[in-house]
Write a structure and sequence with these properties.
With 722 residues, the chain is an alpha+beta fold. It is built from 13 helices and 36 strands. α8 (527-530) links the parallel β26 (514-517) and β27 (535-537). The chain binds (2R,3S,4R,5S)-2-(hydroxymethyl)piperidine-3,4,5-triol (DGJ).
C-alpha cells in the first residue's frame, strides 16, 4: 500500500519508490499540517515525533506552521490557498480534519484533464476538512504514483451550508519545506522563443510564474522547480510543481521570515469568482509534484514517464506517428488542390507519410484577416472538393490531415454576421482584434455545438486522420452574453472547461484521429492539452539552432514524443538563419519529426537527403519516443555545443545527439560524459565502429569526431555487445 494512516499519531504517510510525503492532524481542533516531503523514510511511525500542538496559543500563531492547505484570516500571513465571500461577509476560514479515505487507483476529476492509473501503481488519499461556521467542506486529494515517484494533488470544495458561498481563489496545492539556498527553475519565453530555462535564486518575498492570458501562454509556464544550491543534472534536491491546466494560473514561492519556503500552485485568482449554491462543488485542477534527490535529470525522467504512461491517451500514445509534411511554410495561404497534390506526390516519393493542409482551406480565407468560424471547404481552392483531394493523397499511399482554429471567430465571417453575440466581447466596446479575430464564446453550449458539428461535417466527408487544433490569440474583453452579471468571474475557467469538453468530444467521435494541439506555435503547450493530444506543436520557430534551447526547455518536463518538430526550409522563416539540412533533420529527430517546406522547390541536394532522414526516423523513433532522456550539455549554458541522449529502458541501446553550434579554433573536442548506461555493459558505437565499456563512456566520455564549421550535428548509436 503506497499510503498508510498511523491512527495513534493521526499521521498519513504517502510512499513512492524513492520518496515519502507526510502530513498529519496537529491538534485537538483538527488543523492539518505538512510534516515532510523528500527522500523515502522507513516505517509508518511518527518520523519527527509530532505531538499535539496548541497552535492557537503559540506566540507565533500560524505564521510559522506548515499548513497543508492554508486558509486566510487566522494568522498565517504567507500565501494561502483559498478565499471566500459569504452572504454574512465572512472571509475567514479555519478548517478541521473531518474524515478520510484511502484506496487503490485514482479518481477522475470532473471536466478536467488529470493523470490516471490502474490499481497496481497508484494509491489515493481523500482527506476531508470542514469549516462548520462557514459551511464549507474541502477535500484534499493525493495520489501516490509508486512507479514514477510522483505525488499528484487536487482539491474539491463543497458548499455544505444553506446559503450561497462565493469562491474567489482556489489553489490546488501548497508545500512548505526548509530552505537550502534554493534556486527557482522556470520556463520563460515569447512567440518563437518558447520555454527557455531560467534559473534564479529564491529570495525573501513572493516570486513565481503566472498567466492572465486565458491560456498557459508562451511567456511563462505552469511549472516551477526548486533546486538546491549547486544542483546539477545528476545531483542535488529538486522539488517541482507542474499544473495540469491550460488557462490562467499562478505558481508562487515565498522564502519566509523563518527560512522556510512555501510553494503554491493553482488557478490564478485574477478575475476569478465561482458561485457555489448549496451542495455545489468546485474541482481545482491537478498539480503534479516531483521530488528528486538525484538532480534535475531524474525529475525530468519521472515527469516523462508519468506523462507517457499516465496522462497521454489514445491510439498514438505509445506508437510511432506518421511522418507528416505540412504546407504552412511551403505555401502560406496561396495553395489549391493542384499545388497540394504536387507536394504530396513528391513527398510520397521520398518516404513522407502524411500531408497536412494548414490554415486557408475554408470559407473566404485568403489571408489571416477573415473567415475563422466558417468551417466549410472552399472549393475554389480545394478544387474537386475535399474527398477528391484526400482520395488522391491516399492513392499515393499517404494519410491526410488538416488544420482548424475552432475557438475563434473573425468579425469578417458568416458565423459572426449571423451571431455577433457569439464572440467574447464587452457590449458597447470595440474588442481587441488580435490577428483580426475574436474568441468564440465556447462557454455557451450552442456555440460549442455549432463548432463541433461544423468540424464533424468536414471530418466525416473524407478520410481525415489527423487534426492540428490551433489557437492564435489570448483572451481579452472578458464578458459572455451567456452569463449573468454575477457569474462573469467564471468566464475564464468555464472557457478552459469548454476547450476540454470540445476536445474530449472530438477524440471520442474520432477515436483513431491523431490530434496535435498548437497555439501560435507553443503558446498552449501544457499537461492539460496533452490529455487530449499526444503531441503539441512546440514552436513556429523551427530554426535548428533556436530549437536547441526551445527543445531543451520543453524536454525538461515533457517527453520527446510530445514535441512537434519539423524540418523547414532555409533561410529560416522566423529568424533568417541558414543551417545544414542534415542538422535540421537531426534536431527534429528529437521530437515527432516531420517536414514543413515546399518539397517541390527545395534544393535537389536537400530533397535527395530526405529518404535518408526518413530511414533515420524509422530506425530511432522507438528509442526516442520511449527511452529515458538525459541532458548532457546545454548550448544555452556553454554557448558552444549541445548534447542529449536517449537510453532504452533496458539500457541495451542509446542514441547520443551532439551539435557543434559554434566552432572554436584550437580548442580540442569537448568531453561528452554519457549518462544512464549500464556500467557493466560494453557498447558498440556504430559511427566510431568501436566497442567501449559503459563505465568508460560515463566516466571518461564519448570521443566526439571532429567536424569543422558551425551548426554541425552528429549522432552516435550505441548497442550493447552480447
Ligand atoms: C500558427 C501556427 O503555429 C502555425 O503553425 C500555423 O498553423 C498558423 N498558425 C496558421 O495560421
Amino acid at each position: 500500500m503506497g499510503i498508510i494512516y498511523n491512527e495513534k499519531d493521526r499521521i498519513f504517510k504517502l510512499d513512492t519508490k524513492k520518496t515519502s510525503y507526510i502530513l498529519g492532524v496537529a491538534d485537538d481542533y483538527g488543523h492539518v499540517v505538512h510534516i515532510y516531503y523528500g527522500k523515502k523514510l522507513r516505517g509508518d511511525s511518527n518520523p519527527v515525533g509530532m505531538s499535539s500542538v496548541d497552535y492557537k496559543n503559540k506566540h507565533w500563531f500560524f505564521d510559522g506552521a506548515w499548513m497543508e492547505y492554508p486558509t486566510p484570516g487566522i494568522g498565517d500571513f504567507r500565501e494561502h490557498c483559498i478565499e471566500i465571500k459569504t452572504e454574512e461577509g465572512y472571509s475567514t476560514l479555519e478548517c478541521a480534519y473531518d474524515s478520510h479515505k484511502i484506496y487503490k487507483g485514482k479518481p477522475k476529476l470532473a471536466g478536467l484533464p488529470a493523470t490516471f492509473s490502474d490499481e497496481d501503481t497508484c494509491t489515493t488519499l481523500e482527506l476531508v476538512m470542514v469549516d462548520k461556521l462557514v459551511g464549507l467542506e474541502i477535500t484534499l486529494l493525493y495520489s501516490a504514483f509508486e512507479d514514477v515517484d510522483v505525488i499528484t494533488r487536487s482539491v474539491i470544495v463543497r458548499n455544505i451550508d444553506t446559503k450561497v458561498i462565493k469562491l474567489t481563489k482556489v489553489l490546488s496545492a501548497c508545500l512548505d519545506i526548509n530552505n537550502d539556498n534554493y534556486n527557482g527553475i522556470t520556463l520563460h519565453g515569447s512567440w518563437g522563443r518558447e520555454r527557455h530555462i531560467q534559473k534564479r535564486p529564491i529570495g525573501h518575498g513572493r516570486q513565481g510564474v503566472a498567466s492572465e492570458r486565458g491560456v498557459s501562454g508562451h511567456q511563462d509556464h505552469p511549472f516551477m522547480a526548486l533546486a538546491s544550491a549547486g544542483a546539477t543534472q545528476t545531483t542535488g534536491d529538486v522539488y517541482a510543481m507542474h499544473l495540469v491546466y491550460s488557462g490562467n494560473y499562478e505558481i508562487q514561492c515565498e522564502l519566509t521570515q523563518h527560512d522556510s519556503i512555501r510553494m503554491v500552485a493553482g488557478i490564478s485568482p485574477y478575475n476569478f469568482e465561482w458561485t457555489l449554491e448549496p451542495e455545489d462543488t468546485f474541482t481545482a485542477p491537478e498539480v503534479v509534484m516531483v521530488y528528486s534527490a538525484e538532480g534535475i535529470g531524474n525529475m525530468s525522467r519521472n515527469l516523462h514517464d508519468l506523462y507517457r504512461e499516465h496522462l497521454i491517451r489514445g491510439k498514438y500514445r505509445n506508437t510511432k506517428r506518421p511522418i507528416l509534411i505540412n504546407n504552412w511554410e511551403a505555401t502560406y495561404f496561396d495553395f489549391d488542390t493542384d499545388k497540394l497534390l504536387a507536394i504530396a506526390k513528391q513527398a510520397s516519393e521520398v518516404g513522407i507519410e502524411m500531408l497536412v493542409v494548414d490554415d486557408g482551406w475554408f470559407g473566404n480565407r485568403f489571408d489571416d484577416n477573415r473567415a475563422l468560424g466558417d468551417w466549410v471547404v472552399n472549393e475554389d481552392k480545394i478544387k474537386g472538393g475535399l474527398k477528391y483531394l484526400v482520395d488522391e493523397v491516399n492513392k499515393l499511399g499517404m494519410k491526410f490531415g488538416m488544420w482548424f482554429e475552432p475557438e475563434m471567430v473573425c468579425p469578417d465571417s458568416d458565423m459572426y454576421r449571423a451571431h455577433p453575440d457569439w464572440a467574447i466581447e464587452v457590449p458597447g466596446r470595440d474588442a481587441v482584434r488580435c490577428r483580426n479575430q475574436y474568441i468564440a464564446d465556447i462557454t455557451r453550449k450552442e456555440v460549442r455545438d455549432y463548432i463541433f458539428d461544423s468540424m464533424c461535417k468536414v471530418l466525416k466527408s473524407a478520410n481525415v486522420e489527423y487534426v492540428k487544433w490551433d489557437m492564435n490569440r489570448p483572451l481579452t474583453d472578458i464578458y459572455s452574453a451567456g452569463l449573468p452579471a454575477e457569474k462573469q468571474g467564471e468566464l475564464y475557467h468555464r472557457y478552459v472547461l469548454a476547450v476540454y469538453e470540445l476536445q474530449e468530444r472530438l477524440i471520442t467521435e474520432f477515436p483513431d484521429l491523431l490530434l496535435e494541439n498548437c497555439s501560435s506555435g507553443g503558446g498552449r503547450f501544457d499537461p492539460g492539452m496533452l490529455y487530449y493530444s499526444p503531441q503539441i506543436w512546440t514552436s513556429d520557430n523551427a530554426d535548428a539552432i533556436e530549437r536547441l534551447c526551445i527543445q531543451e526547455g520543453t524536454a525538461l518536463i515533457y517527453p520527446l514524443s510530445t514535441m512537434g518538430a519539423h524540418v523547414t526550409d532555409c533561410p529560416n522563416h522566423s529568424i533568417g538563419r541558414t543551417t545544414p539540412f542534415d542538422t535540421r533533420g537531426k534536431v527534429a529527430l528529437a521530437g515527432t519529426f516531420g517536414y514543413e517546406l515546399d518539397v517541390t522547390r527545395i534544393p535537389e541536394e536537400d530533397r535527395q537527403a530526405i529518404p535518408g532522414q526518413v530511414a533515420m526516423y524509422h530506425k530511432y523513433n522507438d528509442l526516442v519516443r520511449a527511452g529515458d532522456y538525459y541532458r548532457i550539455a546545454s548550448f544555452a549554458e556553454n554557448a558552444q555545443h549541445d548534447s542529449y541522449m536517449v537510453v532504452s529502458k533496458d539500457k541495451t541501446e542509446a542514441l547520443v545527439t551532439f551539435v557543434q553550434v559554434i566552432a572554436i579554433a584550437n580548442h580540442g573536442m569537448p568531453v561528452i560524459k554519457l549518462q544512464g548506461l549500464n556500467e557493466e555493459y560494453t557498447y558498440h558505437v556504430e559511427e566510431l565502429d568501436r566497442d567501449i565499456n559503459g563505465d568508460v563512456l560515463m566516466n571518461i566520455g564519448l570521443p566526439i569526431k571532429g567536424e569543422f564549421g558551425d551548426f554541425k550535428a552528429s549522432l552516435y548509436h550505441l548497442k550493447k555487445v552480447d
